[in-house]
Amino acid sequence: MNGNLICCDEYSMHSGVIISLKLLERVLKLVKSFLFLFFCVLLISFLSPDKVSADQPESSVVLVKISGVIDPAIAIFVGNSIDRAVEISAQAIVVEMDTPGGLDASMRTIIQKFIDAKLPIITYVYPQGARAASAGTFISYASTVSAMAPATSIGAAHPVSFSGEISKEMDQKITNDAISYLKNLATIRNRNSEIVVDLVKESASLTSEEAISKGVIDVIADDLNDLLLELDGREVVQGSNKFVLRTANADVVEIEMPLALRLLHILADPNIAYLLMMFGVYGIIYEFASPGLGFSGIGGAICLILALYSFQVLPVNIAGLALIILALILFIVDIIVPSHGILTAGGVIAMIFGSLILINSPTPYLRVAPALIIGISLATAVFFFFALRAVYKAHKAKPTTGKEGITGEIGEAREDMNPEGLVFVQGELWMATSEEEDIIKGDKVIVKNVDGLKLIVSKINKKKEV
């Protein structure tokens, strides 16, 4: 009965290993399929044409919507939209925005485009609950007409270094430069310049009612239709030209952000950048673990390149990135030279610490969410634990076929052996040769070796069985 129980346990172990390996293979195939689909969508997005026709009436107003962090993709989109509005002879462009701020370089690119524009630029903080914080405040000040919806806010324009802590003297220089820049914009657009110090230095934030009473904005409007009615008949100055807005019955032509720029905007999200980096790591590890046509390796490499693009506009900590690269190396080495999970454990620890310090920014919207870091790290730990455990069991499992499969098995002599005779092993009769002494029928024997189709056996002493 004990022998039967041992056989059942070994069978269960082998079955568990096979199931684990098959499950691992399916998971890796799903990862490969996801990467392939992602890059197909990315390729299609760059080939997608703009959806706006150039054949529009002159009374039209162009509408563009921006939200999230002000980054290079947003700057390109706004600049291209202004050029398109000029091409179709639109009378004005409305930039509807909701932003927590963004990159200084991208903000200045947009502002310069506003100043050089050949048609009026109208910024509109919308919908209710939206904000034009930090960089959004500068952009609003730079527009020809600045408008807000009720229950929105503007301000908190103190510059923040994306690269972490800076000296008090450097912070003062940056702050003074921002104050001077915003004062110049206020002078150009004839807006309140006295409150600029509070908006920048004290990070003051104003409601729409406070903003219009203090001369920071020009109009409060419930929605786009209300805004166009409020602006109708208003005379504005853009550059050296005067314009009279006729917006009450204007056709609104919305320019949507092209999918390619939308994807680049998404890539600037630190959480997306982190996920892309991890997908790249997994793709490369899969390629090392299961060499084939190279799709996983190529996909992983592309993911890493896209992540590097994201890191160009994010305050990346080199030490954090180095720790994640170290984790990648440890994972790969543990696949090639199994260390019973020790290297994988070290890799998971390095990845957690590297992820936590990867994005070095005091602004919440430019940091990787801790929940995402913990989730990815735990998933990686569990994945590699089960993967390496399955591989380890597969390597350590006793062979069930061939020479190694029968060596060490216990059998019974079916006839006297002097020195050759028949033995019964693994349910079959084998021709065997006694290695040491004469064996009589019924004696228990153990297989020591295999010589072609003949077993080399020796007698099991009764004392050893006890």
> How many structural units, i.e. domains?
3
CATH topology of the largest domain: 2-enoyl-CoA Hydratase, Chain A, domain 1
General shape: elongated
CATH superfamily of the largest domain: 2-enoyl-CoA Hydratase, Chain A, domain 1
Strand order of the largest sheet: 8-5-3-2-1-11
Q: Could you describe the largest sheet, including whether it forms a barrel?
A: 6 strands, parallel
Give the terminus-to-terminus CA distance. Answer: 16 Å
SSE layout and pairing:
Elements: H1 2-47, E1 61-67, H2 72-87, E2 92-98, H3 104-116, E3 121-125, E4 131-133, H4 135-142, E5 145-148, E6 153-155, H5 168-189, H6 196-201, E7 205-207, H7 208-213, E8 219-220, H8 224-231, E9 235-238, E10 241-244, E11 252-254, H9 259-267, H10 270-289, H11 295-312, H12 318-336, H13 342-356, H14 370-396, H15 402-406, E12 410-413, E13 420-425, E14 428-434, E15 444-451, E16 454-459, H16 462-465
Parallel strand pairs: 1-2, 1-11, 2-3, 3-5, 4-6, 5-8, 14-16
Antiparallel strand pairs: 6-7, 9-10, 12-13, 12-15, 13-14, 15-16
Helix pairs in contact: 1-9, 1-10, 1-11, 1-14, 2-3, 2-9, 3-4, 10-11, 10-12, 12-13, 13-14
Give structural notes.
By secondary structure, the protein is of the alpha/beta class. The protein folds into 3 domains: 169 residues, no CATH class; 208 residues, Alpha-Beta Complex (2-enoyl-CoA Hydratase, Chain A, domain 1); 59 residues, Nucleic acid-binding proteins (OB fold (Dihydrolipoamide Acetyltransferase, E2P)). The strands form 4 sheets. It has a 6-stranded parallel β-sheet with strand order 8-5-3-2-1-11, with helices on both faces. Strands 12-13-14-16-15 form a 5-stranded mixed β-barrel. A hairpin with a 2-residue loop joins strand 9 and strand 10. Helix 2 packs parallel to helix 3. The two termini are 16 Å apart. The N terminus is likely disordered.
